[in-house]
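ugh finaly. both done.
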Amino acid sequence: MLKWPPVTAMKLDRSLVQGLPMSRKNAAIVRTAIKGGGLAMRLTTVAIGIETEAQRAFLSGIGCEKGQGDLFSYPLPAGQLRPMLGAARS
């Protein structure tokens, strides 16, 4: 019997996100992965490498639940990140 491992999330690599939304090929792959894979299997979908508002809007519009990338914040040292996380919990 084939069983599904205990997977809860699906990450989309930045190489797929980079060309969005202009790259038809990337858009088709990402749309299929999110709708046919992530949503169908009830996985949290996370896009890596979001750099533009157009990318964020496209991904959000097709059901991608979470994202990370320079659009939201550049990489930060832990000392700068901790105060931000504390403020987010308040």
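ok and the 2nd:
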Amino acid sequence: MGAGFTLLEMIIVVGILAITATIGIAALDPITQIQKANDARIKADFSQIQKALEQYYDDNGRYPLPTADFKITNSSGNTVDWGATWQPYMNLVPKCPYSAGSYVYYSTSDGQAYYLYANLARGADENLCKGGAVCDNLPSGASCGGVCNYGVSSQNVSP
């Protein structure tokens, strides 16, 4: 008789591998890992945008005005779309990694304060506004594609 595995032995081995793979996938929780990575990207994006806004303030003595749909305007008053260039401040203004999401930019009418808002998917983040509720200073009509529960602002105000 030739050496080899029986059909029953093969079924048992494949079953054990399937159970092990299922446990591994459940332990890694890929959806949470993707959300965690996207939330970290939002925080990094906001850090870059904040640096650009401070450079703009140094050059112009005020922060840029917002558009009606809560985007940044350049010094000529033109809209700077998320994902577009904003020279000389940013080669590419970041856009929200969530397809249904959007960033919200707002500044005071005198240009002396600004706010940036986004939706973080993970409800366990320590930096969420009011435990994951809508941030206090979110302007009326603004939408992040979900609850605008994360915000940063200029140093003279709080999000």
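summary for the 2nd one i guess: The chain has a mean pLDDT of 91.
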